[in-house]
Amino acid sequence: LFFRFKSWEADFNQSVEKVKQLKREPDIPTKLKLYGLYKQATIGDVEGKRPFLLSPAQAKFDAWKEYKGKSKDEAQQMYVEFVNSFLMMETKAEAATAPEGLEPVPGLDVTLENKLCWIKLNRPNKYNALTWEMYNGITNALNYANGADTTVTAITGTGDYFCSGNDLSNFTKVKSPEDLPRMASDAGKLLRDYVDAYINHKKALVALVNGPAIGIAVTVLPLFDLVVASDKMQPPNQRVEEQ
């Protein structure tokens, strides 16, 4: 009897091409994992000394070393499965949902269920960081809920984080110094409208903080009527001392 084991090389090469064609750049942990698996799958075990200072080179070395001992075929399989899982999560995040009359926004799911308006931050691979579009989307969703047949509005996150604050890509869209005054003015209005939507909300407003909350996500918590926080919230810059 002869057994033919599946070769992952063709699937691996296809996955590499899929990564090259991503519309949005993955976060750093994802990029490092892809790097480590790719190196293990194409070269094998990492060699040489670990870079001494904290640097991108050291992070890459550690990411590669994570898979030391894995055969190239095993690493190819792990790479393929990780890419498929990553792309599935990205697709779900992009497939935003919204009730009739409210424009869908990537990274945001808004649903009406049994007198409850759910606003879910759905960018788990980006730790639910807020894009400018999501700021507007949440503002519009809160205003929409004011006129909906609901009594409670709840905001929560998907994945491990509640919200990691601003998406840093918000600040990389400046094409020239001349754009700065206009962008600063637009950002100021966007944030005022965002905060006003919380302050002027007419329904009971509940935050279900399922994980770490950072930056603007913490700033607006006092504007909720009720905050239910997981023990994974880990508020930053807050020291708790036992008496």
Automatic annotation (TrEMBL):
The keyword Isomerase applies. Keywords: Isomerase, Peroxisome. Residues 8-92 form the ACB domain. Signal peptide: none annotated. Its main location: other. The keyword Isomerase applies. It is found in: Peroxisome. GO terms for cellular component: peroxisome. One of its GO terms (molecular function) is delta(3)-delta(2)-enoyl-CoA isomerase activity. Pfam families: ACBP, ECH_1. This is ACB domain-containing protein.
